[in-house]
Design brief:
The chain is mostly helical. About 80% of the residues lie in helices and about 0% in strands.
């Protein structure tokens, strides 16, 4: 893989990871899990307690794993599920534009997750080295 492509994919993973870590941290430390649960209840989220824990921890841990480049397809799917939930629970009624509270931002995050989760992980991802080694052993 070309070094610039690896660097670009790494930058995308770091940016996405920081965004998800920040939002998970906010749910855990700014609002607290009880506050997040109350907010999810008010928005009409299904299973608000589970949803609050899921969103908090998948964003925190998933963000870290994105940056490191570990289990990218799985992490991306879990975060995409989180963002689909955010779209339908918190944003869909506000329309498209993020400036109006719409679903533009979580949709953009889904696009980024699809790119880093299902394209090549890049040379600066843990997955690349683990799976390359595993494939060589299998051959």
């Amino acid at each position: 893989m070309y070094p610039i492509r690896s660097l670009g994919l790494f930058a995308a993973r770091v940016i996405l990871g920081i965004i998800f870590i920040a939002h998970g941290w906010q749910k855990l430390h700014t609002f607290g899990l009880d506050g997040t649960k109350a907010s999810f209840t008010k928005m009409g989220a299904p299973f608000p307690e589970f949803s609050a824990y899921y969103a908090t921890w998948v964003e925190l841990i998933g963000g870290i794993l994105l940056i490191v480049g570990v289990l990218l397809p799985l992490v991306s799917v879990l975060l995409i599920i989180d963002m689909i939930g955010a779209i339908f629970v918190a944003h869909i009624d506000q329309g498209f534009w993020a400036s109006d509270g719409g679903y533009e931002f979580p949709l953009a995050l889904i696009a980024g997750l699809l790119a880093v989760g299902f394209a090549s992980a890049g040379g600066l991802a843990f997955d690349t080295h683990v799976f390359r080694r595993r494939n060589r052993v299998a051959d």
